[in-house]
## 1
Amino acid sequence: MEHKPKIAIHKFASCSGCQLAFVNMGEDLIELLQLVDLVHMAEVGSMAPEDQQVDIAFIEGSITTPHDVDRLLKIRANSACLITIGACATSGGIQALRNNADSGEWMRSVYAKPEFIQSLSTSAAIANHVKVDFELWGCPVSSRQMFTAIRTLLYGVPPLSLREKVCQECKRRGNVCILVTQDAPCMGPVTRTGCGALCPSFGAPCYTCYGPAEGVNTASFGQRLIGLGLHPDQVARRFASINNAAPAFSEATRLFAGEEGKS
Amino acid sequence: MAEVPRYFPRARLAELISVVQRAGFRVIGPRVDQGALVYREIDGVEDLPQGLTDEQAPGHYRLAANGTQRHFSWANGMSAIKPFVYAPRERLWRVDRDTHGIHFRPLMSIAPRTAILGVRACDLSALILNDAHFLRNLYPDPYYRLRRENLLLIAVNCSHAASTCFCASTGDGPEVSGGYDLLLNELEEGYLVHSGSPSGDEILQKLATARPSRRQLDQARHQLDACRQQQRAMPPAPRLTGLMSRLDHPSWDAVAEQCLACGNCTAVCPTCFCHREVEAPALDGQSSVHRRDWDSCFNEDHSYLVGMLVRPDIKTRYRQWMTHKLATWQEQYGRSGCVGCGRCTTWCPVGIDFVAQARRVLEDEA
């Protein structure tokens, strides 16, 4: 390696939980900092400007203000590889629920002087504004995901992107399916792997942290949830969660919310 | 049942378990977990289910009390023997880099001697198919073999069939025909026991048993006869090869509307063996562990060839699963890959009925 690659971690509208996946690497973080230069990460006090040239820019958070857009364009222009981390950056996050509401109306009802607030009408995924080279899904992403992505990029190959359903990992762990034994509205059959089937391993139903899996059949699955006793509106809400603005889930939300209107 | 079995009362089942443990085996048996029976390690008879039966239907599994003292009065649990011989996730080898170059070494985990108590006829048939795939080829799988050679199998003849069972039609059950070390028939008050191997003989010799009565032998036979009356029946194997001439049948589209491509069926299937291999490099880039994970023909990367997916949609993936299991498997391993356990149907989150789907494609009325 001729030079130490430069890495930046930028924050937009988010809770900072994904950046913590980086901080929480523990001893691996010390090892990682031998391999790369961390030039920007607000959480730890590194604050290189957005136009600093970097090899990998990780982006946490969604785009919600005109200022965000300016920053993002600068980052993109100065990054060889741009990777989104987490639900907010990758699909718009839980805050994208506001995309279906009148944000001007909300601002007027909450703030005494809404004219001081410069906000876009939507919470958008990074890919809605610039080209994204790689996505790390999750809410939050794990240390393992970040470190694997960096390691494989240091080898000069693109990170492996597994898009299978949570059920696959759940079965590898030997878990009993709580949808089949308890009629639990577990979202595993439509949700992307990556969490290690964390919730079902503790007997709790999956709630879509890692976004839609590849090749999902949300129409059939939603009907099944109705068959288990959920009201169509409850089905719509199961999809309208952390990754509500991911296209497969926003379509499913509309499908089942619409069904309620019909009934 | 070839030779006359021996008999021991229910109270002595604990003794059988401790004899096996003293012979150096960890004992795996059925245990209740999240509302289902699953094979897990047991310390003794107190960990086994008692007076429980299973109610299975497409996409549905419930345990219910049946008012008996029996430990094995259920059809089957979520998993078969497969995870104990073909690990869901396994480290295969490791590579290290130093100044002399790169060095590979195998990562063989130690396989503890393992007894599995409660094995059913369908699962034993499946194990024989697993053997055919992993051991009887040019490159026998050493990871599988290590675990397989350390198994002691204590089978139980079924006394109850679930609504999803169809082993009678595939010829794999409900009566165990071979491949076991010990075989039990559970009766109201105790067990008939047969030995099927020298290891089984050794265990049996250490157990106090008696000659069974005529009535006990009759009870065992009647239970099995009742168990043969199953609600579902897979068409016979020669008929199943007909699936291959019906690849354009409209019912593949219909099943694709329902199928989630979640791969639960392939994971619980006792004969599915597909895997992917994954590299897990250390952060410093100087070593890497090569791993094998269970895969499924319902996953996109399963049919990935350079630049394309051979099976890009749910329809072609479902069709691959069914036609391989029931039809092309016959060419590959000399019989259908389905042993009639019905797990694919019970554990399908949307309750797709595997037998009914095969019949729809074959336009074969049940």
Note: Chain A has twelve helices and six strands.
## 2
Amino acid sequence: MRARLAIPALGLWALAGCAAPPPPPPGTASPEEAGLRMVADRAEARLKSSGRIEQRPELDAYLRGVLCRVVGPGCAELRLYLVDEPGFNATAWPNGVVELWSGTLLRLENEAQLALVLGHEAVHYEQRHTAQVWSRAQQSLGMGALLGVLAGAPELGVAMGALAVLAYSREMEREADRLALERLARAGYDPNEAPEVWEYVLAERARDPAGAPSPFLSTHPTDAERIASLRTMAATLPRTPSAEPLGRDAYRAAIAPARGRWLARELARRAFAESELVLDRLLAAEPRSGELLFFAGELRRLRDGPGDAEAALARYREAARLADAPVETWRSMGFVAKRLGREAEAREALRTYLARAGAAPDRPMIERMLAETE
Amino acid sequence: MARSRLVLLLLLVLGACAPITEPLVAPAVAPETTLGAAPRIDGGKVLLLPPDVECGEVGASGLVTPRADWTEQAMRNVTTALEQKLGARNLVVERLDEATLLPDERAAFERFAPLARTVGLSIFHFQNLPGRAGRFDWTVGETGKPLRAARKADHALLVHLRDSHATAEAMALNALSIAAAVAAGAAGVRAPVRIVTGAQVGFATLVELESGRVVWFNRLGTVAPDADLRVPASAEKSVDALLAACPI
């Protein structure tokens, strides 16, 4: 029994035991690092043939341009993949892959924020954070196991070691934040955009009913303290003057061709509370976007809560008055109006859809629906 | 109770357990599993996909760190053993080398190989679920056809192996853990034992390219310390065990 009581004390020793090793000099690879690279290379080959990579050369060129602007010459070592996945996630692999989920681009407001996310991941790669966290995990879990064995509770010791690894990985996150922020400012972007990204991430997490954070959140512990320290840092950084410190228009123009498809994917997650935040933010910036109003309607139609049908119809009507409303606006408007018993409006909307949709594959179905209501 | 568990663990560490192999065979017609020997496939051509081998080191932490140098050795040994074993049989064996694929062959390969791997992993993990009630009816659909057309082959064989070896630190900690538990046991206290071992696990899957059916499957799992893919003779033994009842 006495031995068991000693565990917390031993755990604290494990936590405090080792100072952070300096990053290894460039050009050298430990067997450990070579192993992690090998696994990453194999995963990259699988990713490339998976069909999950967005095929958008213009967008790729834009993303690469931002990456290189913030990273500098080191970007030659990085391979950026835009992966067709909803949700917020970006990952740096130990072989120089930067994986960016398309859902991330719906959640950023401008080029400065994008530059922060890409710069942050680039720092993880350059500072070899994966290998460092890995060897720290080996040390801490091994040390935890040893102390646990001595104290008669091996798995508890390992768990204490795991806590030490988490603390260490947060340290790496802070380092990535700090270095990315410096580069952001040096590249002429507004560093005050950095805390905005994490603020948003926090806000979205607060809306998640299941409390299951995105893969990004589970590895990027975000808290008020981190945001506050970023704000202080951003305010004091020397900045390179620039004509476009935010790059909002360029960012919007770059993602515009793909945005509708990503929004459809976003809604397919059926995480409506989070998607509503995404859409609210996009709409606050572009209140007269027919595309965004259509998806705001779709969110309510699919969620189908109390009052959602009416709210969806109102948004479709508003979208229909705007030039960039997608043709599906009238189809959805017809469905919802029909459900609400507004037969005349439903017919009108479905007819408009048919007139505009050309050879849509669902044409026969809509024609039949129209025939039934007439 | 604690004692008998300890003995079992000791046996495990000392490598007393034999490799587990469990060949599975797809039936020609009825969707039921036949365990054991499948009807021999005579003649024809089999494509040997690049073996999916990874070798790593398991430390006192219990984490497996992949090792590129060991993996390269293991890959060479497994490939050689596979070629030797299949070379002795009455069929044409063609090694598919990723580096020398023509563009259309690459497209066919990239459609087929990841799916064959995923289906193999699914068989490995899920074949024994009670809900499957012993059915063995896995398929990769139509994805084998382009590869068959490109290489005029009848079957494809994929071998997937993960091989890990405990570090000296891990072994020392094992010994310490056993000693601590024995000492505690002598004092009348039950203490848990923590053992970290290397392991060799994997599978071989044989796919009929025309139909897409997985016609035969076998898995391998051992913690024997002499199971080591880095050593040619040991790799040969593993491949022998894996392909023991292979119909090709």
Note: The longest strand of chain A covers residues 79-83.
